[in-house]
Amino acid sequence: MASSSAFEQDRIDRRYIAAALRLSRKHLGLTSTNPAVGTLIVRDDGNGPVIIGRGVTAIGGRPHAEAEALAEAGELARGATAYVTLEPCAHHGRTPPCANALVTAGIVRVVGAAADPDPRVSGKGYAILRSAGIEVKEGVLAREAADQLAGYMNRSMRKRPEVILKLALSADGMIGRRGEGQIGITGEIARRQVHVMRAECDAILIGIGTAISDDPELTVRLPGMRSRSPARIVLDRLARLPATSKLARSASDVPVLVAACSESPAANKAELERAGVKLLATETYGGRVALPELLEDLGNQGMSRIIVEGGADTARAFLDEGMVDRIALFYGPEAIGSDGIAAPIGRDHIPAGFELVREARYGEDSFAEWIREI
Ligand code: AOF
Ligand code: ZN
């Protein structure tokens, strides 16, 4: 029956787009300024679909995913279907257009997830395919693709990186205990998950208060992923970050950027620069680093995804400015009580416009994530 086979085809299409999204995730955080795209070339010779080519946008952004997948498929691509998580490009950039490569390779059907907002590509990639007689189905798992490509979408449409606010909360919604530095709220499995999240970002950002009180390293310390530590950014209007801090001392291994204003003491700045810290000259208002301007600057530097890891004042500043695009909350099992520092946000008061996209458990801890529609 036509309708049941159309239903079956939809199911297969969603399955392969989901697989292409999972595949592309392995390069999330490694392809800026390009998005991490996934492509699968799938062929069905009557015995069911078989994957004959896989591609992910290469580290650094090129070659594009389609080129890699077509190279693996070779001549078998003739007559096959391509599953792409983003509309194939239509422009002659540093690589030839992927839409043309799909046509030349003899692909007969393309299933796409997200549309590309890049004006050089938007609508044009799909149009090239259609005018060559290729059957095109757009928008399969579009929401899942928009979630994963949110960094790229933010840079394209808001001209700044996606800001991910991550907090670890106690069962009663506290993020620490007054007068104490870093305290254990979540367990080891959740902490490892945070390291995966860091690896998928271009930078980790904290406020100077947290930098001084916790002296964190902010690196990815998972086996096999140590080389994936992103840049570390400190909001530090007066350039107070000690040159003896773990951050400053490791600046030659993993970049450290300090957002300081022009009035900050020259001696502090000089000392940080000697340690290899990069200073970002930032505007301030109301005694705070101007976040929209800073984010625009970071976007111009090619950053697509930034994870904000504390403390409470920094989190509140991003929330107050409407500069948070994703909220990721880890909840530990224990309460802290009356000497706790209340989190600026909690699962029961997520701002309007955010949608729950993920819930999970990591050992004894629970996790939930919300994103804001672009
Ligand atoms: C694709 N497949 O894997 C990716 C695409 O600077 P260029 O020439 O590499 O082009 C960058 C643009 O290519 C980028 O803005 C986005 O539109 C697209 N990214 N396209 O067909 C891919 N990463
Ligand atoms: Zn391309």
From TrEMBL:
Gene encoding the protein: ribD
Binding, substrate: R198, L218, E309
CMP/dCMP-type deaminase domain span: 11-136
GO BP, sorted A to Z: riboflavin biosynthetic process
Catalytic activities: 2,5-diamino-6-hydroxy-4-(5-phosphoribosylamino)-pyrimidine + H2O + H(+) = 5-amino-6-(5-phospho-D-ribosylamino)uracil + NH4(+); 5-amino-6-(5-phospho-D-ribitylamino)uracil + NADP(+) = 5-amino-6-(5-phospho-D-ribosylamino)uracil + NADPH + H(+)
Origin: domain of life: Bacteria
Catalytic machinery residues: E66 (proton donor)
Keyword NADP: yes
Family under the similarity heading: In the C-terminal section; belongs to the HTP reductase family. In the N-terminal section; belongs to the cytidine and deoxycytidylate deaminase family.
Pathway: Cofactor biosynthesis; riboflavin biosynthesis; 5-amino-6-(D-ribitylamino)uracil from GTP: step 2/4; Cofactor biosynthesis; riboflavin biosynthesis; 5-amino-6-(D-ribitylamino)uracil from GTP: step 3/4
Record keywords: Hydrolase, Metal-binding, Multifunctional enzyme, NADP, Oxidoreductase, Riboflavin biosynthesis, Zinc
Name of the protein: Riboflavin biosynthesis protein RibD
Binding site residues for NADP(+): A168, T210, D214, R221, G311, A312, D313, T314, A315, R316, A317
Cofactor note: Binds 1 zinc ion.
Cofactor: Zn(2+)
Protein function: Converts 2,5-diamino-6-(ribosylamino)-4(3h)-pyrimidinone 5'-phosphate into 5-amino-6-(ribosylamino)-2,4(1h,3h)-pyrimidinedione 5'-phosphate.
Enzyme Commission identifier(s): 3.5.4.26, 1.1.1.193
GO molecular function: 5-amino-6-(5-phosphoribosylamino)uracil reductase activity; diaminohydroxyphosphoribosylaminopyrimidine deaminase activity; zinc ion binding
NCBIfam families to which the protein is assigned, alphabetical: eubact_ribD (TIGR00326)
Amino acids binding Zn(2+): H64, C89, C98
One Pfam family hit: RibD_C
InterPro entries for this protein: APOBEC/CMP_deaminase_Zn-bd, CMP_dCMP_dom, Cytidine_deaminase-like, DHFR-like_dom_sf, Eubact_RibD, RibDG_C, Riboflavin_Biosynth_HTPR
